[in-house]
Write a structure and sequence with these properties.
CATH superfamily of the largest domain: Intergrase catalytic core
Order of helices and strands: HHHHHHHHEEEHHHHHHH
Number of helices: 15
CATH topology of the largest domain: hpI Integrase, Chain A
Strand content: under 5%
Mean pLDDT: 87
Helix content: 55-70%
Number of strands: 3
CATH architecture of the largest domain: Orthogonal Bundle
Number of domains: 2
Length: about 325
């Protein structure tokens, strides 16, 4: 057995799980990336995966693997960079245990992430939100569950994993009603609830009777919901809502778009970006700046403040061609 196999095992069992206490999502993401890398390297080298050595995973091979992920597997640039981050984490760990491979490790760690275009975030306006929530058939158990879940997502901005992991005890419906969750990076945070969402949650809690440790949103058989299942349900409701709100047809709507919608609601209400960052659980306030770029109305208000005092408010409209001719005489 080469040095790579035991290094990989220690990386997961000791480095990620014991030292860093990485979440199951992080462990799964790193596992998938390194499994793809090992298979790719074994196929190119014509050897069994267990016989691969750290020196076999040099910088040229890692670059080829990243290109393979992007071009052949159809990964986005963001996913490509996430896979590179997992590989670099492994090699930083290997640098402490195998100094004899220092040159190879340093060249791999020097591979830069790929730059990409940052597009404006997609979010729903109030009309689209109402149409989406109205698409759920609240006469059925599944429809009431989905209506409650998506209404909570739009108001709180919780991530998909946070919504799935909510338990009955995490919802506080008394004075100072709020929902608490353990978010990304193991950060505990609480988010206040509005009166309409609180009323919907109270109805759902009475129907979803059980122990306080029970999961809040489950399948009809009591199993934990998956993200794929939520995305499928959301797509179903968007398809229905398009009939009453055609503007939804022009947008690609995912669960993360509901999170963006919550952030844009706060921004348009005049809430400071530092508060929005705390609301969403962002590690850095700079992450919240993407919503400033997407809010055209905010930019127009800023432009109006810089207009000359004698200028009339509003957008510029070119003069009518006939009137312009008459005035020029």
């Amino acid at each position: 057995m080469s040095a790579l196999a035991p290094t990989l095992q220690v990386f997961f069992t000791d480095r990620l799980v014991r030292q860093r206490q990485a979440s199951p999502h992080t462990v799964a993401a790193y596992r998938d990336t390194l499994r793809l890398l090992v298979r790719f390297a074994a196929k190119r080298g014509g050897v069994e995966p267990v016989k691969l050595d750290i020196g076999d995973l040099d910088a040229p091979l890692i670059s080829l693997f990243l290109d393979h992920c992007e071009l052949d597997r159809g990964n986005s640039v963001r996913t490509r960079n996430a896979r590179l981050a997992a590989i670099r984490s492994l090699f930083r760990h290997a640098a402490l245990r195998h100094p004899e491979h220092a040159a190879v490790i340093q060249r791999v760690l020097a591979i830069p992430p790929k730059r990409f275009e940052r597009r404006l975030v997609t979010f729903l306006n109030e009309t689209e939100v109402v149409a989406l929530l109205a698409a759920a058939d609240r006469t059925t158990w599944t429809g009431r569950r989905d209506h409650t879940l998506f209404a909570l997502a739009v108001q709180t901005g919780l991530r998909a994993s946070e919504l799935i992991g909510l338990r009955r005890a995490d919802v506080h419906v008394g004075v100072g009603a709020h929902v608490s969750c353990l978010g990304k990076g193991r950060k505990q945070r609480i988010t206040p609830l509005t009166a309409p969402v609180l009323a919907v949650l109270r109805v759902w809690l009475s129907e979803r009777a059980g122990h306080t440790s029970d999961v809040l949103f489950t399948t009809r058989t009591g199993r934990t919901l998956s993200r794929d299942a939520l995305e499928h349900r959301l797509h179903t409701y968007v398809t229905r809502a398009v009939l009453t709100c055609p503007s939804l047809r022009e947008k690609t709507i995912t669960l993360h778009v509901l999170r963006h919608t919550a952030a844009m609601r706060l921004l348009q209400a005049g809430v400071d970006t530092s508060v929005i960052a705390l609301w969403l659980g962002h590690e850095q306030v700079e992450t919240t700046q993407i919503y400033l770029h997407a809010d055209l109305a905010l930019k127009e208000r800023a432009l109006a403040r810089t207009a000359p005092l004698h200028a009339s408010p509003g957008r510029y409209c070119p003069p009518d061609a006939l009137l312009a001719f008459l005035e020029s005489l």
